[in-house]
Specification:
The structure is a homodimer.
Chain A (H helix, E strand, L loop, with lengths): L9 H19 L4 E2 L1 H8 L3 H8 L6 E2 L3 E3 H11 L6 E6 L3 H7 L3 H5 L1 E8 L8 E2 L2 E5 L3 H8 L3 E4 L3 H13 L4 E4 L12 E4 L2 H15 L1
Parallel strand pairs in A: 4-5, 4-8, 5-7, 8-9, 9-10
Antiparallel strand pairs in A: 1-3, 2-3, 6-7
Helix pairs in contact in A: 1-4, 2-3
The structure holds a DNA duplex.
Chain lengths: 211, 211
DNA sequence: TAGATTGTTAATCGATTAACAATC
DNA sequence: TAGATTGTTAATCGATTAACAATC
């Protein structure tokens, strides 16, 4: 975001992680420059679109040269907030929740899971990879005391709405939601949904089209 | 798809599962009709867009009345291919893979997991919810013998490309990919990606914008 | 019949692509 | 300097919204 500029469209934001991923690969190969047309070949986006996208945030390139890969990767990382830190909890320590909790990709995105929460009293006190499971009764207090910013929601759909509302009421400002529900959150709260089922239905649709 | 009509845009296809989800809720409450403007209030899409979307596939409504909820849900289910059956395997029986394998949403979308595959010889012969884990050596034969159509890929990114190529070479025509890689597949193959990391970075971006 | 709401055409808006002057 | 490639403006394309005649 450049101050005073218009809001950047979501289509652009969706492409930023893709650029970042390719730039990571490229820098690991010690390639130190890339042109928009080379990046176009890698990503499948047009060179024109790539230049447009990047120029939403500033002129990172140099005429006649292209982009410095290390610098561009760093810039995109900053735009995506990768160097910010967010204390996070995960609600719903079932199979999917536990798998997510152990997922390493978090660290490099700045999300640190501080606790798991579950309705099942039998799980309370257990831990997943060293992260303790708490009772749902302690949710509000924990969020407030530890200034938790983000909640990952992996509970069944029946309890998802309630859980999300409780988290937000206690101070959470970001939700990563895996439950198949559509919920509206206050303006100052960000929700990002992973819709496994919708994705599967898309696959189903295109399989049908294909045959 | 209506024969002879133009290809329906992906934006439309992405909204179909949302319509289906709300129609399921509504029919469960025994509501038997709904207008595009009521559906608009529920989904957040404009009434105009809803009518446009649906008319890509046919006129399911009735002037002065609206849409019959049961019928519309059924029509959308058909469009999405929910009544098709796809024999499926899952490759990568790690934590995420095992969680996905146990996920029930599959059945209602027509995907039936017939086997799991893993590189780890120690896991071979185990089973997850009654589904047996096979050695990667048996992948090609299994796909061919059982006419497997779809592969769910939950291996680490290092092996994802190879695994996807092997599956496609053996006859798989649909990939549900959880690995953070960008891969191009042949024209007659459908790939649908779940990009956990990209989603998390989007959350990170909007958190940063918010604060 | 009168009222409601669709299906569909037309208008608008926004995103992508093309083009090219600026400049390294 | 000549060649390359950006940043940016203009043109195009496609998706969304508005409007309204058709019709239940």
């Amino acid at each position: 975001m450049v101050k005073g500029k218009d809001k950047v469209s979501e289509a652009v934001i969706r492409r930023l992680p893709v650029y970042h991923r390719f730039l990571t690969e490229i820098t690991e190969k010690n390639v130190d420059r890339i042109s928009s047309s080379e990046l176009s070949k890698l990503t499948g986006f047009t060179a024109s679109q790539i230049r447009q996208d990047l120029n939403n945030f500033g002129g990172f390139g140099q005429q006649g040269y292209g982009y410095n890969t290390v610098e561009l990767k760093e810039e995109i990382g900053n735009i995506l907030g990768m160097h910010h830190h967010h204390d996070t909890i995960l609600i719903g320590a079932g199979r999917l929740g536990s798998a997510i909790a152990r997922y390493n990709g978090f660290k490099e995105s700045g999300f640190a899971i501080k606790a798991l929460f579950d309705y099942d009293e039998k799980k309370i006190g257990d831990n997943v990879d060293g992260i303790k499971i708490y009772s749902m009764d302690e949710l509000e207090k924990f969020i407030k005391d530890k200034h938790i910013e983000v909640a990952i929601v992996t509970v069944p759909k029946q309890s998802a709405k309630e859980v999300i509302e409780r988290a937000i009421d206690s101070g959470v400002i970001g939700i990563w939601n895996f439950a198949p529900i559509d919920i509206t959150v206050p303006n100052n709260v960000v929700i990002e949904n992973i819709r496994l089922n919708d994705s599967l239905l898309k696959l189903s649709y295109y399989l049908k089209e294909r045959i």
